[in-house]
Amino acid sequence: MGRVLCGRPDRVLSATPVGTGALSEAPLVHADGTRTGVRDLPGAAPGIPAEWARPVEDRGLGAELDRRVRHRSLLNGDTIPFDPRYPRELERRVIAHAGRYDTSGAHARAERTGRERTGALAGTEVPVLVIAAPAAPAPSGSGGGRRLGARGDPGHGARLPREVLTPLAEAILVHTAASQPRSSALRRPSR
Known about the structure:
Layout: H1 2-7, E1 28-29, E2 35-36, H2 48-53, H3 61-75, H4 85-98, H5 106-109, H6 118-122, E3 131-132, E4 151-152, H7 162-178
Parallel strand pairs: 3-4
Antiparallel strand pairs: 1-2
Helix pairs in contact: 3-4
C-alpha cells in the first residue's frame, strides 16, 4: 500500500489500511508527547513466533482447518472472546472457493526492502483512514515495527471477528464517501 500511496497516488481515491504494520521507522509519539522508538515497542506475544516457525505439513483437510483456527486464535488477542466456530466455517468456505487447502507461503516470500517511506507518506494527499488492531498480539508486517493507530475499535486483534465488522464497514463507508477526487481521472461520474 505504501508503494501506491507514495509512488502512484493518482491511482487511488482513498486508502484504508487495517491492522497494518508501520511503514516508517519514525518513533511512536504518544498523546503526552513522549516518544518510543520502533525497536522499543513490544514484539509478538508468546506462542506466535513458534506458530510461524512451525512448518506447514499436509496432514489432510481436518488438520489444516485445525491449524488455521489455532492461528486465528493466536492472532485474535485477548479482548474479544474467541469462538472457533466462525473462523472454522470461514476457512472451510475459503478452501471450498479456492478448490484446495494448501498454503502458498506468499507472505513469507514477500519483498521486505524499500518499506521506509516516512517522508513520502507524510506528504501524501490521499485521504487515509487507519484502522488499528489494538489487541493484536503481534506487530503486523515483517515481524517488527509498530501498529498504526489513528482509529480503532476497543479490542480486535489481527483478525477481524464478526463483532467488529459492522462498525468497521460503517467507518470505511463514511471515510470513502467523504474522499474527494484529486484528479480528473478519479472523478466520480455525475448522476
